[in-house]
Amino acid sequence: MELKVSPELKEIASFDSKIPSFKTYLVGDWVSSKEFEDVVSPIDLTVFARVPRIPDQMIDQALTKIYEKGRWEVRDMPGEKRLKTFHDMASLLDKFREDLIEALIVGNGKTRAAANGEVNASIERLIRADLDVRKLYGEYVPGDWSSESLETEAIVRREPVGVVLAITPFNYPLFDVVNKFVYSTVAGNAILIKPASRTPLPALLFARIAEIAGFPRHGLGVLTVPGKEMDKIISDKRIGVISFTGSTETGEKVIRLGGVKQYVMELGGGDSAIVLDDSDPTYTAQKIATSMTSYSGQRCDSIKFVFSEPNVYDPLKGTLIEELKKVKIGDPREEVNMGPVIEKGTVDELEFAIKDATEKGARVLFGGKRIKDNYVEPTLLEIEKERVKELYLYKKEVFLSVAVMVKVENVDEAISLSNSRRYGLDASVFGNDINKIRKAIRMLEVGAIYINDFPRHGIGYFPFGGRKDSGLGREGIGYTIEHVTTYKTVVYNYKGKGVWEYM
Ligand code: NAP
How far apart are the CA of 338 and the centre of ligand 1, in A? Predict the structure, then answer.
């Protein structure tokens, strides 16, 4: 697999050998290392790039630099200049669109349409930083209402915390980096980004773009380090906020190690769809199939359970199977709907989950077969409601295209089965009965509910985030500002002097 890169971005890599070796941007400098990590393309499982494996000592130096210099450089850059830089970065993302698309296709196995969509979302996110700004205000608190604070008043300022550590997953390796960069730095923080080891290139290309746009040199760093070697930096007290997106299992480790800090935790789950008897089965099946198969189901908000009322169950099942039959799987550089999944191991886990499910009485309605290595059909199973809670798939998210259908008696049973999972990211409700929909809205323990649509977080125009094991805090334009800033109260004491004495 070969990677094409524009000359202006090529400066950050050596193309001397067949496999390019990239440098990483570490708080002011492009650096390399003695050791490298291979980056493998999910398309054919060959190595197409190498990135330096940053040793502990260099990480510590980078942290010292970002803490001592970078956080002040970002904070001291006037807000309107920060916004201007974001606009310049958006234009550069557009200019280098083909490089980014190439990195997302080769590195992630995305289809061209999905890769292009991710670049568009990243551009829009940078531009929409102007809406985040409206949440960066503080408050004025008069002292009049307590005898102790008469003649005093306070201003409650919102301030940046300092240094944000952003840990990102493999599935949106550009957008997640851009999103965390925008809300952290628009609020005046510096940021260290730790991209997923399987997909580090979009973060490096983005760092180069930030550099060209003139973002403060010491305010950004990209840590190309394996996750399991992150313990020291996670627990370092100079990191004020950790913004993590990834699996629940990793997220829990990060919080335990990080200790007292501020957190944004976007964790795993997979979503439920509740289908009411008065829904349109064709429309609903199309929406569920799209949710299941887009980016090969490697989305935190992909539908993994369909809890359907009895009368619509059979027509829905029939149409959903027909929709899944239409899905073309193959090399994402060709005209397909689904490319490979990120690695073979995820398909192994699916095979284990299918075996587990069928042993517990589930039936495979569609798919489930490995085409080769890390290419697999979308999978639809069904099981009786009495046994669904026993499934491995119910207890743990398997991160690809797989969903389980369950026939329920009524909406109450659907809500109960959805809430009994340890996850609580989003849910969909399909149908028209306003009383049932209202009940679902009130009782579902999730961060977002989509009525007559499948869950999709998009650029975070509407806030999203999990409850229970799916996370803490919210990502979304304006909403994350709360988690990456802190308050400082300034009390002015005028006691002893009347206003006239200042005149
Ligand atoms: P992951 O394996 O948990 O990895 C996520 C990030 O954590 C990677 O950068 C990884 O680095 C790092 N990491 C791994 N072990 C670590 C450790 N001990 N300490 C610190 N960092 C560590 O998740 P993934 O497979 O990349 O992504 C899929 C998961 O993300 C799914 O569960 C999905 O639901 C979730 N997700 C959630 C949302 C949301 O908005 N809620 C959005 C997207 C994805 P290495 O790559 O170097 O191991």
Answer: 22
0.70 exceeded by the pTM?
A: yes
The residue whose C-alpha atom lies closest to atom 41 belonging to ligand 1 is 266
Choose, from 102, 266, 382, 397, the residue flagged as catalytic: 266
**Atom in ligand 1 nearest the alpha carbon of residue 471:** 41
For residue 69, the 8-state DSSP code is I
H or E stretch including 139?
A: strand 139-142
Tokens of 22: 């990239």
Instruction: Give the DSSP H or E segment for 265.
Output: strand 262-266
Mean pLDDT (whole number) for 439-459: 98
3-state secondary structure of 158: strand
What does the alpha-carbon distance between residue 222 and residue 238 come to, in Å, rounded to a whole number?
16
Each residue's pLDDT tens digit, 148-161 = 898 899 999 999 99
CA dihedral 266, 272, 276, 281 (to 10 degrees): 110
Active site residue 102: no
pLDDT at 502 over 80: no
Is 300 among the residues known to form the active site?
yes
Q: What pLDDT does 16 receive?
A: 82
For 51-104, the pLDDT digits (tens) are 999 999 999 999 999 999 999 999 999 999 999 999 999 999 999 999 999 999
**Which residues contact residue 410 at a Cβ distance below 8 angstroms, ignoring those fewer than 6 apart?**
309
Best probe residue, ligand 1, of 24, 39, 167 (max atoms within 8 Å of C-beta): 167
Which of 37, 102, 118, 300 is catalytic? The answer is 300
Which atom of ligand 1 lies at the shortest distance from residue 167's CA?
9
